[in-house]
Amino acid sequence: MSKNIGFILIAASFTALSVVGGKAEPEPPPIVVRAVTVRPASTVEATYLTGEVRARVQSDLSFRVNGRIVERHVDVGDRVRAGDLLARLDAEEQKADINVARANLESAEAQLKLADLAFERQRNLSKTSVTTQAAIDQAQEDLATSRENVAAATAQLDNARQLFGYTELTADADGIITARNAEVGQIAKAAQPIFTLARNGQRDGVFDVQEALYLRYPPADRLALSLISDPTREITGTVREISPTIDGLTGTIKVKVNMGEEQNWPLGAPIVGAFESPQRSTIEVPWSALTVVGDAPAVWTVDPGTQTVSLRKITIGKHRTSSVEVADGISVGDAVIVEGGKFLSPGRAVLVKPE
């Protein structure tokens, strides 16, 4: 009996000690953290592409007749004015044609004089009834034929002189020679491009934009342009033309940006254009706010009423240099912990530092 009483006393003592021990354990102090309030942000993304400076109007200059090039007066990069002689063909054939046409005209004019004299003689004879009406009609017909021959010979001479003029290739406007496709001694065919002339005036920045980039971020109306060789030289251009078709070889879309009359930027110079996406509202949090739940990204949020934390899974939209864009999981106004989250557990009380 005394042994049972001893066990009861020992059990009661342990019970009392456990109760006293339970009352003696204090609540853990709140963990000091720093949090930020989620606010909407306006995001504009820029993609930088390279292009080149081109003249708004470029023309291929060519001879209108066949021939061998005997003179070339300009080269790539030369500035020319309208009417300047650029090249000349061997014109011996055209000169011979002019001589033949001139001789034909002189012969036709001589025939016209004879026909005119014959007609006048027949008309005078008719007054004295010495000639016949048939002879008068024939003289009149010969005169008309001679006049037509003179007109045809004159046209032939004009055409020969025109063809002779085609042996000289001249600039059709003020500008810069950007390409040369022939050399002295070469046989040039009619309409074969010999020079390319970039006309003075409006300039374009021309870019080949990848189809995927264009569909994702169509270019804004205005773009910032700068020279690769001198980034400090920057202007703002206006998109004036977007090709309606996709290049079958490169898969790109040609975009032309109006640069105005920017004569100080050399033709063909490489440039950089900032293609910006339309402005949109996003939610972003610093990298330091991220943690994981299993394989999913998450953040710690603070309940403003109880000052306790909970773990929320999020969906990341885009990664940036110092932050991430959150597509889903948190909302504007949530308090997200960015410092002190390493030792947290769900429901743990925290003390938030002022922002």
Automatic annotation (TrEMBL):
Molecular-function annotations in GO: efflux transmembrane transporter activity
Limits of the Multidrug resistance protein MdtA-like alpha-helical hairpin domain = 99-166
Q: What are the residue boundaries of the Multidrug resistance protein MdtA-like C-terminal permuted SH3 domain, all occurrences included?
A: 285-342
Q: Name one Pfam family in it.
A: HH_MFP_RND
Where does it reside?
Cell envelope
Q: What region holds the Multidrug resistance protein MdtA-like barrel-sandwich hybrid domain?
A: 61-195
InterPro entries linked to this entry:
MdtA-like_BSH, MdtA-like_C, MdtA-like_HH, RND_pump_MFP
Chief location bin: other
The residues the entry assigns to the signal sequence are 1-18
List where this protein forms a coiled coil. 86-163
Q: Gene3D superfamilies this protein is in?
A: 2.40.30.170, 2.40.420.20, 2.40.50.100, Helix hairpin bin
The cellular component terms of Gene Ontology attached to this UniProt record, alphabetical and capped at eight, are: efflux pump complex
Where on the tree of life does the source sit, at the highest rank?
Bacteria
The cross-references to NCBIfam families, in alphabetical order and at most eight, read: RND_mfp (TIGR01730)
Instruction: Please give the family membership noted in the entry.
Output: Belongs to the membrane fusion protein (MFP) (TC 8.A.1) family.
Q: What is this protein called?
A: RND family efflux transporter MFP subunit
From what organism does this protein derive?
Answer: Neorhizobium alkalisoli
